[in-house]
């Protein structure tokens, strides 16, 4: 089983965005040493508690301070941008870090309606044009526009010796089928979906051309030396999601001490139980077993792990334990 990391660059309550970004760089260096395959950075805009609206900038720093781990976006939210600009930015990364760059592509807004307008104008119109935007981006990456196309005469320079590898991210059959149609590898967000993930990934493989399909599943995991400690650590992110569902939690991931003083309503307890359903929480042996069971359901050989705790040290420890057992 291959393991990779998805980093949302969370800000712990009481810490600054600078500290959160520095923690991301430290985590990437650790992942590089531990043998993780990829380190991908998510894109969010004006979402309090998350500190990375520009994955390519953070990846440039991470790439300069790591040796072998693959670097990627999880994901570039394509309707926010012109495909040419995205190709240029990831060509810069691929030029600096040859053979190490993935270009994950998504279509979510990554923020509020106002943010979408500030970034892209008519976002909904661009979402409708997602297949066309994707085609244009792939042409710039592959340098294969038809001669009659006006863009055939330009290059998304610099042109790297090894192209960035495009991936399509999603949580629905629509995204899975688009990935299959475009002959792209696919990443399914198990940690953020209530859909039948294994069926969606199966449909991707069924519709893909022979020998063209590759899939990764992204899973939320918190691993600690004991089950009790893992359950305790998990409280921070679970509580943060409850707060954000009410428009609160804008100062970042709360501490465990804050959570322990909070009294949940019946509805909030139900939400916590629902959130836990899509997470793997436990000691190394438990986590390994649950990941192996999930691997059988999805029939994939790589999982991308997202871990959010209030303590950056506890997050690093979680990834260390995973690397040791798997």
Describe this structure in words.
With 326 residues, the chain is an alpha/beta fold. It has a single domain, classed as Luciferase-like domain (TIM Barrel). The protein is 47% helix and 15% strand. It has 13 helices and ten strands. The protein has helices at 17-34, 55-64, 83-96, 113-120, 123-128, 130-142, 173-181, 197-207, 227-245, 256-260, 266-277, 284-298, 312-325, and strands at 2-7, 38-41, 70-73, 76-77, 101-106, 165-170, 186-189, 215-223, 279-282, 302-306. It has an eight-stranded parallel β-barrel with strand order 1-2-3-5-6-7-8-10, surrounded by eight helices. Helix 1 links the parallel strand 1 (2-7) and strand 2. Helix 3 runs parallel beside helix 6. The chain is globular. It starts with a strand and ends with a helix. The relative contact order is 0.14. The model has no long low-confidence stretch (mean pLDDT 96).
Summarize the structure.
By secondary structure, the protein is α/β, with parallel strands linked by helices. It is 47% helix and 15% strand. The chain has one domain (2-226, 281-325): Luciferase-like domain (TIM Barrel).
Helix content: 40-55%
Q: Strand share of the residues? A: 15-25%
State the secondary-structure class.
alpha/beta
Look at the structure and give the CATH class.
Alpha Beta
Give the secondary structure arrangement, pairings included.
Layout: E1 2-7, H1 17-34, E2 38-41, H2 55-64, E3 70-73, E4 76-77, H3 83-96, E5 101-106, H4 113-120, H5 123-128, H6 130-142, E6 165-170, H7 173-181, E7 186-189, H8 197-207, E8 215-223, H9 227-245, H10 256-260, H11 266-277, E9 279-282, H12 284-298, E10 302-306, H13 312-325
Parallel strand pairs: 1-2, 1-10, 2-3, 3-5, 4-5, 5-6, 6-7, 7-8, 8-9, 8-10
């Amino acid at each position: 089983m291959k393991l990779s990391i998805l980093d949302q660059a969370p800000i712990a309550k009481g810490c600054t965005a600078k500290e959160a970004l520095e923690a991301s760089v430290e985590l990437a260096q650790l992942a590089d040493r531990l043998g993780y395959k990829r380190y991908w950075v998510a894109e969010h805009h004006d979402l309090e508690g998350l500190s990375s609206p520009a994955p390519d900038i953070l990846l440039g720093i991470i790439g300069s301070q790591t040796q072998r781990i693959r670097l990627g976006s999880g994901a570039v939210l394509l309707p926010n941008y012109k495909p040419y600009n995205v190709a240029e930015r990831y060509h810069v990364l691929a030029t600096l870090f040859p053979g190490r760059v993935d270009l994950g592509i998504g279509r979510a807004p990554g923020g509020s309606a106002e943010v979408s307008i500030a970034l892209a104008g008519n976002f909904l119109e661009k979402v409708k044009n997602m297949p066309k935007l994707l085609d244009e981006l792939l042409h710039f990456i592959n340098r294969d526009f038809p001669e009659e196309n006006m863009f055939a005469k330009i290059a998304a320079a610099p042109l790297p010796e090894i192209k960035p590898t495009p991936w399509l991210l999603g949580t629905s059959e629509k995204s899975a089928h688009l990935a299959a149609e475009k002959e792209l590898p696919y990443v399914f967000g198990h940690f953020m979906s209530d859909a039948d993930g294994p069926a969606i990934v199966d449909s991707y493989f069924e519709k893909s051309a022979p020998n063209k399909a590759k899939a990764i599943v992204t899973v939320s995991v918190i691993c600690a030396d004991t089950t009790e400690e893992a359950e305790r650590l998990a409280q921070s992110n679970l509580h943060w999601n409850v707060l954000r569902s009410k428009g609160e939690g804008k100062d970042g991931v709360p501490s465990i001490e804050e959570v322990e003083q909070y009294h949940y309503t019946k509805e909030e307890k139900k939400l916590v139980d629902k959130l836990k359903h899509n997470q793997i929480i436990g000691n190394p042996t438990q986590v390994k077993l649950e990941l192996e069971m999930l691997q059988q359901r999805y029939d994939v050989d790589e999982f991308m792990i997202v871990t959010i705790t209030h303590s950056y040290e506890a997050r690093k420890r979680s990834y260390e334990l995973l690397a040791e057992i798997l």
